[in-house]
Prior knowledge:
Helices cover 27% and strands 31% of the residues. The chain contains 4 helices and 9 strands, in the order E-H-E-E-E-H-E-H-E-E-E-E-H. The chain is of the alpha+beta class. Helix 1 packs antiparallel against helix 2.
Amino acid sequence: xxxxxxxxxxxxxxxxxxxxxxxxxxxxxxxxxxxxxxxxxxxxxxxxxxxxxxxxxxxxxxxxxxxxxxxxxxxxxxxxxxxxxxxxxxxxxxxxxxxxxxxxxxxxxxxxxxxxxxxxxxxxxxxxxxxxxxxxxxxxxxxxxxxxxxxxxxxxxxxxxxxxxxxxx
Length: 169
């Protein structure tokens, strides 16, 4: 039987992180951070079942992963900017692969549509040394609303969720 798990985190420059690096790692891809020139190459990472970008309904912009997360980095200028949010969600082992992918994508689509933000969904397989039932999705979201082919203001409605996961508030 599946056990529910969801955690939320902030990806912040204050802690030395970037959305380009986070996205590359979760999707097992290579993304060059145009702001810093840093190359995030995780193409040799194993265990990625699928990865896809989910945009809000009605949005005509369809960026690839590098374009999306570089736009996020360009929008957020501050040295301590919160550039992305991450939701880690357990997926039922009992579901076939296609159903797990559909479940994660539909959850990400709900978030993207409700808050008008971009979501990057990467589904990871259980690690070889861990619990063989640990299928999970990493849903990386922008902190800013989509506006045209870029980003507008921050979505403050989700701030409390990510900041309170550790019981801070």
